[in-house]
Amino acid sequence: MAAGGSMEEKKRRLAEAALNALMQSYAPYSHFYVAAALLAADGTIYTGNNIENASYSATVCAERTAFFKAVSDGKREFEAIAVCGGPEGRAEDYCPPCGICRQVMREFCNPAEFRIFLVKEDGPVKEYRLEELLPLSFGPDSLK
After folding, report:
1. CA 117 to CA 94: how far, in whole Å?
2. Tens digit of pLDDT for each residue in 90-114?
3. What are the C-alpha distances in Å from 53 to residues 23, 28, 117?
4. Is the pTM of this model over 0.90?
5. For residues 111 and 75, what is the distance between their CA atoms, to the nearest angstrom?
6. Which of 21, 64, 94, 138 could be bridged to 35 by S-S, CB 3.0 to 4.6 A?
7. Active-site residue, 121 included
8. How are beta strands 78-87 and 115-118 bridged, if at all?
9. What is the CATH code of the structural domain delimited by 7-143?
10. Which of the residues in the chain have pLDDT under 50?
């Protein structure tokens, strides 16, 4: 396990970081805020938020924002991500990553090892491996 303690401690830190970042979303059209907290293998946490655009197809999800920030900083190895979201910034239910975000995760993460934590304000954190949320995936190794 990489820097930063037990997986339970990492899960707690990521869940807290995602919930704390939720109001940084820019969602003037859908009013559905999403935040993500991505743990790099070296222990660095990158947060991301959904950023909407009047030209809807130019909108970017929180998970991709976190990944792109990390990759642009030179990170290529990741352990886990926590995701939360909901209307008007209230994470009252679980908010799983969309298909495009799952595919971006697959580009950089081992599907059998990378953990996805779904977080809401009150309630347990749900934990999945990427391979559970993206079975039979297509990734870099598919092109070899």
Report:
1. 10
2. 999 999 999 999 999 999 999 999 9
3. 17, 8, 27
4. yes
5. 17
6. 21
7. no
8. parallel
9. 3.40.140.10
10. 1
Residue type, 123: G
Report the distance separating Cα 76 and Cα 115, nearest Å.
15
**46, burial (CB in 10 Å: exposed 0-12, middle 13-18, buried 19+):** buried
Choosing from 8, 16, 52, 63, which is the catalytic residue? 63
Amino acid at 118: L
Secondary structure tally for the chain: helices H, strands E = 4, 5
pLDDT recorded at residue 5:
84
Domain residue ranges of the chain, discontinuous segments joined by +: 7-143
CA 50/CA 30 separation, integer angstroms: 11
Cα 95 to Cα 1, 2, 29, 68, 142, distances in angstroms: 26, 26, 18, 20, 29
